[in-house]
Amino acid sequence: MSLIGAEGPDLVTTFAAAGIDILWHPSLSEASGSEVIDLMHALADGREPFDILCLEGSVMRGPNGSGRFHMMSGSDRPVMSWIEDLARVARYVVAVGSCAAFGGITAGGDNHVEACGLVYSGREAGGLLGADFRSRSGLPVINVAGCPIHPAWLTEALHQIAAGSFGVADLDEWERPLAYTVHLVHHGCARNEFYEFKASAEKLCELGCMMENLGCKGTQARADCNIRAWNGSGSCIDGGYPCVNCTAPGFEEPGHSFTMTPKVSGIPIGLPTDMPKAWFVALAALSKAATPPRLRDNATSDRLTIAPANRQKKKTRP
Amino acid sequence: MSRLIVGPFNRVEGDLEVRLEVGDGTVREARVVSTLYRGFERILAGKVPADALVYAPRICGICSVSQSVAAAHAIGAAQGISPPPNGSLAINVVHAAENVADHLTHFYLFFMPDFARATYRDELWYEAVAERFTAVKGTAAEDTLRARAAFLHIMGVLAGKWPHTLAIQPGGSTRSVTANEVARLAGILAAFRRFLERRLYGDSLERISTLSSQQELLAWAGERRPESSDFRLFLHISGALALDRLGRASDRFMSYGAYGRNGGALFPAGVWSETGLRALDIGAISEDVSCAWYASHATSEPPAVGTTIPDVSRRGAYSWCKAPRLGGEVVEVGAIARQVVAGHPLVRDLVERGGANVMSRVVARLVEIALVVRAMERWVAALQPGEPFCVHAPTPDDATGVGLTEAARGSLGHWLTIRRGRIETYQIVAPTTWNFSPRDAGGTPGALEQALVGAPLREGEKDPVSVQHIVRSFDPCLVCTVH
């Protein structure tokens, strides 16, 4: 559903621009019922060749590996069996969202439903198709992870795939498109000045950096959320709440409350990527000591209380 | 009598199968099957209550904000707090944006494309409908996607993003807005109003929302050509195909009340049936699992003490959907229920004449878009930049809370129990759980199961088009149904 929010251009025009014909999409296509089952058979046995298989949602293997928690309507077969059949004949296989990639939120808790991704169960390689799976193009499953995905993460990857220009070099260590995972959520974060001075928010809705107290994982999470606008202008952090690292495998079970930073002796456990702990502690102490009142006050306020001002500009007399 | 198994259903959210007994060219009996179980209620057990605000919206990519609102209400009830005025207004705007976008998506992308099917190619109206509404290729698809995406810029301002925001909290919204952002929101609404007035209605929101009877509606439609607006074109098709005689269920309606609480809601809570309006008693809600794949000591459990123990081998079961009942009775939920309970004169008149049917369900949805967008304009204008948007309170270690709200497709409730600071039980009863429920212990079919009986079959149909219309007239969300 995030996908149909694509804009600049809209989704239909985006697909047309990429030369992609939609054989079947559950929310958009006319075909329903037996027409769909007939199409699935034709795709699976090669009568109808196709290029790209996109899967949204976890693979449900339960109970006891039977797949009966998710039967394909109208077919009396588990959806996981259909996915396996279709993945073997597709030229490219794309996991759309963290559920299809890694199991995601449905694999949370005790995962009694045995949810997994196409080639991962959380951080463990394997999943439904096995770690060595390669689609007919020779590429592994392309994991457009995110919960939700940004529509453009997928449409741009699909456009590149359709143009024949997408290769292994475009993927990161979790086979996510580097196009968006080459960035940290921290990049372009509008709260960076607060971060620099460790001027931290204490409650949700305050303006300061959310790393120290509110569980924000923006300095570790890989995505371009603060460079590429969501819904015209937003991002999680712009919305006043922390990054939960939703593009990462296993994000659904962080081992602590999502909106509370776990600490040891007052120091956050999850430090920024590549940052040696001693340096972080030293710099944090230094920058905290140097925090200007403007940032210290604004950090714990729900609106700007002190605006930046140029002191050289003289006040005009009334 | 013969058997038809229809599925999967495209253009509904989630997985659905319908099993039909057919004879003499009509549906005699229907069984509605939810084919996917995910276990969100179990995922939530043992978590810190605040984390429900991360998990619950991820039940669904289309009712995400409704899930947030219900979870925030449930936790807020346990904490004993409610938002300051700005917080309530911001949450209303965000929630309304999702619900209105869903109504729009339903009408243009899910429901109308069925009339562009080849089975109708000999109808006089076919050409105009096919050009406008053919799935993916019709002109409406692009128009709608653009208008919808621009409208959802509201989420970029107020909610960070859509779906899956964390901006909605028990004590209000995490996102304060400034005066210029209020202006931006007003601009987004003005652009959306133009789309609705030019394309959907061919008239003002004020005129549409004040239509007061079936007669007035039809006279309004006759003022201009059917092709002059999408609503008129729908009413034209509806008349030609007698959609007002298709898909009637039990005509008992329930609404939890929407957009505000404690008497201040835009649409009030209540129950409406032939005998009139009565107050909603949420203590009378229970979920029957006689025909659902769950193990239970009781045939029926109130959600406050409900359990979720999947049992694929349960005898007589045929769906992952439980069967919620209000005082033992089947009720229908959705826009039509909200508007009947709220006493909208047009919707009341339609229901008094022909009950809930394919036509009246769609009309109720379209009228509700006009009502809600006007309310959104008022809420945005009432925001007070500089005043608080959120208050905070600790969560008690032992408490209970119920969060009730209305998703686009009907009543959504969360029942929460907290013990020793952790979620002990979390039960969710979603809108389509009500509408698409299986039979209960007494053998009474759910609302859709009733609505499908009598649906006519065309010659040689494997996937009867009448069944498609009836199913989609409820705007089901199966991912929420069995969370």
pLDDT averaged over residues of chain A:
95
Range of helix content of chain B: 40-55%
pLDDT average of chain B, as an integer?
97
CATH third-level topology of chain B: Cytochrome-c3 Hydrogenase, chain B
Distance between the termini of chain A: 55 Å
Number of domains of chain A: 2
Residue runs with pLDDT of under 50 for 5 or more positions of chain B: none
The biggest beta sheet of chain B, please? 3 strands, antiparallel
Q: What's the gyration radius of chain A in Å?
A: 23 Å
Strands in their spatial order, largest beta sheet of chain B? 1-2-3
> How much of the polypeptide of chain A forms β-strand, as a percent range?
5-15%
Count of DSSP H/I helices of chain B:
18
C-alpha geometry of chain A: elongated
Task: Write out key terms for the chains shown.
heterodimer, A: 318 residues, alpha/beta, Rossmann fold, Cytochrome-c3 Hydrogenase, Chain A, domain 2, 2 domains, 3-stranded parallel β-sheet, two-stranded antiparallel ribbon, 9 helices, 11 strands, elongated, B: 483 residues, alpha+beta, Cytochrome-c3 Hydrogenase, chain B, 3-stranded antiparallel β-sheet, 18 helices, 40% helix
How would you characterize the overall build of this protein?
The complex is a heterodimer of chains A (318) and B (483). By secondary structure, chain A is of the alpha/beta class. Chain A has two domains: 3-180, Rossmann fold, CATH 3.40.50.700; 183-302, Cytochrome-c3 Hydrogenase, Chain A, domain 2 (Irregular). Chain A is built from nine helices and eleven strands. In chain A, strand 3 (71-72) and strand 4 (77-78) form a beta hairpin. The mean pLDDT of chain A is 95. Chain B has one domain (2-481): Cytochrome-c3 Hydrogenase, chain B (Orthogonal Bundle). Chain B is built from 18 helices and 14 strands. Chain B has helices at 40-44, 52-55, 64-79, 85-111, 126-133, 139-151, 153-158, 179-201, 205-209, 214-221, 230-241, 335-342, 345-354, 358-382, 431-435, 447-452, 465-473, 478-481; strands at 2-6, 16-23, 26-34, 168-169, 172-173, 253-258, 267-273, 276-278, 285-288, 300-301, 323-326, 399-407, 410-419, 422-429. In chain B, the strands form five sheets. In chain B, strands 1-2-3 form a three-stranded antiparallel beta sheet. A three-stranded antiparallel beta sheet of chain B has the order 6-7-8, with helices on one face. Chain B has a three-stranded antiparallel beta sheet with strand order 10-9-11, with no helix packed on it. The interface between A and B is large, with 73 and 84 residues.
